[in-house]
């Protein structure tokens, strides 16, 4: 199956819109031999306004995250963050399918007073990972915690949210250890924390602010000192990071939607389509329309 196109925008779904149980903040579903729930929503490019963990025990499929295809493998944990563009494909027939999906919102994580969960590597995902390979011991641990979460989710007794959050906390800490083992262990210095805050701000404000000074102001730093700190941490300037995010979003929309170049330019905060065209060509050596044509030829 090849990616289907949406009209001018990639739809964004809340957890409540996609939930089997009408859940707003947390849901866990264990599927065995089931077809996709609400396939009409997920078999086209879409975004989720929540975190998703998928623990696959058996089965075969493929899905896309930000235009990158992934072959789904057994005994692997897949994870995605809010607002990434995702596309699912049909489950391969003839192969037993068994998986557990755990969905939770940023608001659910914020119930924790100490703020630890939102800072965990698996949540911050600074290396843009999407899958964790699980050893037999990892599979046993994740399966055990998943079963506890599933039982508690259907329990409906007192302090249920606290219990769910406690089990989720254990799971996310365990997965963060695996994340650090399978990706480069992150720097925990104040400078690195500043860099992570900057990246988060860009993710939230890239359509409003294309200039370095705006982000320096948000972080209470002079533009010069801010630029120096970011360059030391990443080897790249703040404006390069801002442009990277704008370019990624532009490519998402060119690939997944039928929006015109002018419409994309305005959605990304460019005053004129000509400015966007020059920006895109400077970073890619090609026009937005040539990129759309080339990338679709590769995958269609």
Automatic annotation (TrEMBL):
Keyword Iron: no
Superkingdom per UniProt: Bacteria
Signal peptide: none
Pfam families, per the entry: HTH_18
Location of the HTH araC/xylS-type domain: 196-294
GO molecular function, one term: DNA-binding transcription factor activity
Keywords: DNA-binding, Transcription, Transcription regulation
Gene3D superfamilies: Homeodomain-like (1.10.10.60)
Statement: the UniProt record of this protein carries the keyword Hydrolase: no
Transmembrane segments: none
Protein name in the entry: AraC family transcriptional regulator
